[in-house]
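Pasting as-is:
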Amino acid sequence: MIYISRRVDYSFFIVLMAAIFFSCKENGIQSQIPKPELHKIDEIVIVRDTRFRILDYHLEKSIFLAYDAITKSFIIIDSKGEINQEIERTGEGPNEYNSNLLSGAFNEKEGGYFLQSSNELLWYNEKWEVNKRWRFSSFFNVVFYGGPKTKTPYFFLNDATYPQVLPSFYSNFKIPIEEVEPTLSSGNLLEVFDPSDGSLTWKLPIDFGSFSPFNPEDKEFDLTQVFFLDDDQKLLRLTFDNSLTIGIYDLTRDFELVKYVQIVEQNLDDKGKGKTVGLYPADDSGYILLRYSGISEVQLEKKKSNNEDYFPLADPSLYKFYFLDKDNMLSPPISFPENFDPNAELILLEKGKILMREKDKEDEESTYSSYAVFEFRLH
């Protein structure tokens, strides 16, 4: 009896210690999970009758580069929302362009602005005079109706005067990857234009098997690139909308793969069934993901019965931010701000700070555009 009693006590002790161990382990894991918060820290109101799109932000000068498709002009806006400059450069003159522009950006190293189409790169100085004009022939002839929609993707190598530019590779703008012949690209994903010698070269050897269970020739293959080009750290952080893998590539070594980062689908609110639509740096080692969850047909019918103009892609409640730290720990989801437009421009101001456009007021003629600056803070 005594032996049995001690055995029961000993068994109970083992179970108790195991419970304490797993509880402590679980609590330890929970304590490691990043818990960021999204804070609105500033507001900007820009008075203008016509709709424009912000393309880029100059951190040192605290100014924005925007494009107005109605007036076909570029606009320089300060951090208080004042329009400092407006310039129109379409035409056949020496300081003009007649190509369909896709993107624009500040040249933060040498000053001025970069404007880009599928077959031309222009470098304007501060007075909007052409410093250099380069022409090339990209494999993809991308067309954006209504003028440039995004920042020109470029980076500088070492002490180079001219940047390396990605001619037709833009985040969230799908290119028909499956149409690229492997013999043409040698298994590489994108073209890089080098203005110093006028070369256009295929780079970034891509293993689609790391991003998708399908091959480009499969009818189920469906990938749209989402990336952040980090000119400071000379890294490309690349994923795709239907992928839970992030590839990190070294720009100084011809886009050599550094490592893959894998996101566990069960840690996502959408359980991996949504899409990644944004990738931003949060700090020197963390990322901010923006995911779109989508909606079922049943839910969509219910929404439309209450509002016939309901459009899922414009619904902020279907978007969630996540913070992914250096140890690949994923934060709980952070709701997208309710009154802001997830389809408008989201401009990275600096690491962890993003500019978002407020939704236009319904049944009201807009004479201004409202923006807010949001900051991700860890606690």
